[in-house]
Amino acid sequence: MGLPQRQPGPSVLLLLVGALVWPPSCMSLELIPYTPQITAWDLEGKVTATTFSLEQPRCVLDGHASVANTIWLVVAFSNASRDFQNPQTRAEIPAFPRLLTDGHYMTLPLSLDQLPCEDPKGGNRDVPLLRVGSDPGCLADLHQPPYCNSPLPSPGPYRVKFLLMDARGSPLAETRWSDPIALHQGKAPASIDTWPGRRSGDMIIITSILCSLAGLLLLAFLAASTARLSSLWWPEEALEQLRIGSFMGKRYMTHHIPPSEVPTLPVGCEPGLDPLPSLSP
């Protein structure tokens, strides 16, 4: 006689049913002890109004990824990062427009050979960083993939993590979420203080000197323009009279008439005069 066959207990049945029914998205992934962060390289514009630059996860995923795997960057608003569910297929990968509706998207797919462990040899031209939001025309180009790297629409703050997926789009491992990353904000025109009292004394002095020099240059230009116009519109004779300051009338040249010789008359015999009386007896 054979031994009676042992029926599986209820606990074993629950485990088997749970493994079949439990959704794959709720299964825990391998957590890689790495936290994404802003690049430590001394570069200008690491964080702007629409972009930020992350360090590349070099030598972080070597023991977890293979050649056929893809490393994705997940970008989410800081308050929406907890609600992000890892996609299970490539068709479920959220594109950039989902950021405005669901608060998250995925971008910058990389292969393992794009993240070598060696340091760059080309200096600052080959800085190992990932610039999020660096493609302003990706949404305008219809040939671009839906996971393009478009500029970020608001200051955030944002959180990011790296997600390792296989060729079918199933998640394999993930890193920790980064600390909140806030973008730079420009000042509103109404908030700019234009009161001169806020300016330093040196600035006021320099501004006054520049304004005075501008006024002197304007006066010199007007004087030169006036002199030039005067020389064009006034004849030389008129300018000479204005400089002398006297009135010059017309000069008439008469014909030369020699004076007539007047006959010499004795004294007292001029015409129209009575002759002088004689003093002789």
How is this structure best described in words?
This protein has 281 residues and is α+β, with helices and mostly antiparallel strands. The protein has a domain at 27-186: Immunoglobulins (Immunoglobulin-like), CATH 2.60.40. 21% of the residues lie in helices and 14% in strands. A five-stranded mixed β-sheet has the order 1-7-6-3-4. The chain has a two-stranded antiparallel sheet with strand order 2-5. The longest helix is centred in the last third of the chain and has 33 residues, at 201-233. The chain crosses the membrane at residues 203-224. This is Uroplakin-3b isoform X2. Keywords: Membrane, Signal, Transmembrane, Transmembrane helix. One of its GO terms (cellular component) is membrane.
